Description:
This protein has about 350 residues and is α+β, with helices and mostly antiparallel strands. It has three domains: about 10-150, Protein tyrosine phosphatase superfamily (Protein-Tyrosine Phosphatase, Chain A, Alpha-Beta Complex); about 155-215; about 215-245 and about 270-355, Metal Binding Protein, Guanine Nucleotide Exchange Factor, Chain A (Beta Complex). The chain contains eleven helices and 15 strands. It has helices spanning about 25, 30-35, 70-85, 100-115, 120-130, 140-150, 160-175, 195-215, 250-260, 280-285, 285-290; strands at about 10-15, 20, 35-45, 55-60, 90-95, 220-225, 230-235, 240, 275, 295-300, 310-315, 320-330, 330-340, 340-345, 350-355. A hairpin with a 2-residue loop joins strand 1 and strand 2 (about 20). Helix 3 (about 70-85) packs across helix 4 (about 100-115), helix 4 crosses helix 5 (about 120-130) and helix 4 (about 100-115) runs parallel beside helix 6 (about 140-150). The radius of gyration is 24 Å and the shape is elongated. It comes from Dermatophagoides pteronyssinus. One of its GO terms (molecular function) is protein tyrosine/serine/threonine phosphatase activity. Belongs to the protein-tyrosine phosphatase family. Non-receptor class dual specificity subfamily. Pfam families: DSPc.
Amino acid sequence: MTKIKYDYAEMSEIIPGLYLSSIDSALDSQTLTSYSIKTIVSVLSNLPKFNRIDSIDYYYIELDDDEQQDLLVHLDQTFQIIEQSLKNNRNVLVHCALGVSRSSATVMAYLMCSQKSSSFNDAYRLVKSKRTIIGPNFGFRRQLALYEKLDCDLSMTNIWMRRYIFNRLVHSYSDSYYDHQQPIHCQSRKAKNFSHYLKMFQGYFEQQQQQSQSIVCQPNFVYYKCKSCRSILFNQNDLIDHDNNGEYSNNDTHKKITNHHHHHHGSNKSIDGTIYIMIVKWIADDLLKYFDSLKKSGKIDCPKCQTKLGRFEWNRPYNYRRYTYTVQYDDCQWMNEVIVPLVLSITQSKIDTYIVQ
Length: 357
């Protein structure tokens, strides 16, 4: 059987004006002129040495073709570049080394966000029909599936985005990826991206603080206070259902817990008297303590009176907190997941509820 050799430098037009190819095409001035390319988006580990053409705008996205690389963090930028260029009738070339993984993932994300494809699977099939050799690595596929679940909105207000960013935060801090043979803990050496992810968390909490006044006025909204000093610790939106993929429906979250406070022998009482929360502002403000402690677990104290409220624990691999959902990819289905390695548990007897009337 004769194997067909594919020309990676072939210019593949995915939609009118948007091309996908290899670095060879991006370096070939004749090709660029022939296809009237006015914008080049290079998705590579290192900045290529172009003989720049004055009429072309060049953009560089630093990205390795590695499953652990963060693709999502670049997608708002690449969408704006491609969208603006196409609106101005400027043909765009997106390329990586071979036009197989990084650049194809970037183009798929654009198609999803611009609603030219309704899903990750549709975007994949469209790009595959135009350039048969494409194949984003598995890590990029997982992120594109998450991008679909996020409705292409990378705002930290979405709980799935916060889970993802916290996962990246842990990875970047430890400067190595999880060792599946050992309990998870964070090492003292920070990776270069740690400050970026930490700023995303801090920015989110600052934004939430500015919006808190409007939330306070909502009837039946539930806050949780320290029983000792009465300071507000978190609210109903910060709770995690340990039995329902981390999500509550119809605000059943606080109903279960408030029922426990009013009916101590009711069926809604948790077995161990514990509730689980996501990272909240006062924990984020002191987040380095949880990383620097080098402990597998430790206590959570009230930020005001220092009363012990509960415990934090870095999960072992067999006990990861996994948030899963089904993804359609090509002709098969698979389960995508976001792992949150830090569990924050609060003892119910240490808190009281406050319901806005």
